Amino acid sequence: MGDDSRFFRPELLDHHENYPPILSVPAAVEAAFAGEELFLPGVEERFPERLVLRRDSA
């Protein structure tokens, strides 16, 4: 299990004692439906090129 704080916006994370922050799925779904960014700036640019670009990316 990794530290999701390296990838996701802080307000989308759940913090638990003795564990690294993890993504809150309900918070992420809500943000996605609202059209908000999920990732920290620059994270998507580090994804492998083999992934298909999003429809709204230029």
What would your notes on this structure say?
This protein is 16% helix and 7% strand. With 58 residues, the protein is α+β, with helices and mostly antiparallel strands. It has a two-stranded antiparallel ribbon.
Main beta sheet:
2 strands, antiparallel
Q: Low-confidence parts lasting 5 or more residues at pLDDT below 50? A: none
Q: State the end-to-end distance.
A: 32 Å
Helix count from the secondary structure assignment: 1
Task: Name the average pLDDT.
Answer: 86
Helix content: 10-25%
Portion in beta strands: 5-15%
**Annotation, overall tally of beta strands:** 2
Question: Strand order, biggest sheet?
Answer: 1-2
Q: Per the principal axes of the C-alpha atoms, what is the gross shape?
A: flat
Mind sketching the topology for me?
Layout: E1 13-14, E2 22-23, H1 25-33
Antiparallel strand pairs: 1-2
Keywords:
alpha+beta; 58 residues
TL;DR of this structure?
With 58 residues, this protein is of the alpha+beta class.
